[in-house]
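note to self: dont lose this again. the chain is below, predicted strucutre after it. 252 aa total, dont forget to put it in the shared folder this time
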Amino acid sequence: MSGRMQDKVIIVTGAASGIGLATARRLAQEGAKVVMTDRNPAGESAAAAIPGALFLSHDVTSEARWVEVVQATLDRHGRIDGLVNNAGVGSMKTIEEETLEGWRFVHAVNVEGVFLGCKHAIRAMKTTGGGAIVNLSSVAGLIGAPMLPAYCSSKGAVRLLTKSVAVYCAGANYNIRVNSVHPSFLQTAMVEQMIAGAPNPEKMRRGLETTAPLNRMGEAEDAANMVLFLLSDEAKFVTGAEFVVDGGTTAR
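---
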């Protein structure tokens, strides 16, 4: 029985853990050929547990490495049907505390990495009939968070970059759809690290849980399922849109 992503070739960045790993697993379950990239070498063992997956070491801020990753994918599979720009970093400092160096690092990974991914994936996809791109933004790209100015700025940029690229691809008749996904706090390594670093971790955890009207944090698989839908043919008339996975956080 064929899956929803049968034989589609999908690159997932930041795939060593969290949403990226959950997405790679979910796509593979539905028949995709997954290329998992990350600067974390743990991605290699993660990929080994997923049938047919390929792991590539990848710093998403390097354009030269993006060219190599795209070419390696084409050499192995002959095409690219989808890209999940998931790699991201955060910085929990107020606007008065944040450094220019920290600000630039967050934007280099979260924005420039997405720009480079879109640029080079589109060049490959347009020659083989099109595809779909999903950019991971955040609810922090929709609403303000006082301790996350750099992160909010970067994720807001991803939201509008997504819309720009979507209308460009549509206007060029590339048959490439581009959408953004906006999770709230999910139970991922990044969030657990943020909780552990708080002065009162348990208070921090409870605060994150009660941010959502559903009164709990989501799971990485919740975002992965949304990504799966957007990459699948079920979303063939969906582009330039934003999808929240936030337990109702942005509804109030």
